[in-house]
Write the structure tokens for this entry.
Amino acid sequence: MPSRRHSAAIGCAAVLHVILVWSVVSQTPDGNAPPTSPRFLTARLFFDAVNWPGPGGDFYALYHAGLQARHGGSPHDPTTIDGDPPYYFRYIYSPLLAHTLGRCVTLLPPRRAYFLWLGVTEACLWMWLLLFWRADAPLFSRTFAGVALLAGQPFILELHMGQFTFVAVALALLAARRWQTVWGAVLLFMAIVLKTFPLVVVPAFLGRGSRRLLIAGLTAAGAVFLSSVLGPRGDGHVALGMVDTIGGPHPGAESLSQAIYTIAMAMSGFWLPAALPWLPAIVGALCVGMTGWMVLHRRESVLLGACAMLMAFFLGYLHVWEHHYSAVLLINLVALVEISRTAQGRSHPACRLLLVTAILFALPSPFALAGPSFSSWSVTWWVALSASKGLPAAVALAAILRTLGQDRAPVPQFVDA
């Protein structure tokens, strides 16, 4: 039974979470860049919150794409049409998402649809909180995971932007947890349609007799690809995110790749991805491919293998934004609880490393420490900002991979108490 101390910790974190969520919900829509209206309580700690319109800029991009799809246009056409939200970011996701979820959300007015999506995102968080609390794992691990998930600051930015990354990862990890059921296949299909990148978890299922998940994953990926290639002006989605579209370091990105490229730029005078446009895709493919090879050859829990694959994606990806670390934190916590479930895992060095990296992922961006005038930042600040979350991601991946294939007590994965 949980002690009063552990229950109190969860309760305090829940109160803090509710206060922060309310500060997001109660914001006044502001289409200015930067916004002039008051933002949520910790907004000044994030580049995206203090520099771009909001709340709901990313979600409203999907809403606009859904309207375009309803009118027979291209989801990627930014032209304003009747019924559009007051502002929206550029739509960079698949036409399939616009024709499915995008069309559905346009059945409601924009702001109501945004609030509905906040409810879906919150439901995913509370679902995993419940799974952590019921897991057959040490009480400390379960309590820590719950507190970190509730107090994680990137999640608040995820809500503010109306993003989809946390939901996509939550669904993919739940699919890995239910990999032997039809529901696992359905959840994986939904995750891939939502964000495409959860396809990287497939190596965790290979050789497990999980045909449903393999079929669901490949079918979803094929549908996304075909909608992008065959849809009007959708062909650019296939390459989007695989190449650098910025031309230099970005103050809202926190990837290890950006830190390395920034150091190289300081030494050579040019931005490597600009000279070698497909370099980010090659780096990402190598990171995911090498991790996939290890997952395939080191038999372990499917859930832990999925955590490794998703962490590898975020480690190798160039454009890892501040809000993405809400999903990275969830991956970290799921791996922590899974590893700590065995007698060997509870004292495993990987658990201690994952405790530290979880704290770093839960903290807000160090962007505010450098000051808002990023044009005057030194190379040191640029590297420190980029590596502040990217380096812990490398440590977390190494900790997860270290446990794969090691001799551990044979127990069912992530059993509910």
The two ends are 11 Å apart (CA to CA). The chain has 20 helices and no strands.
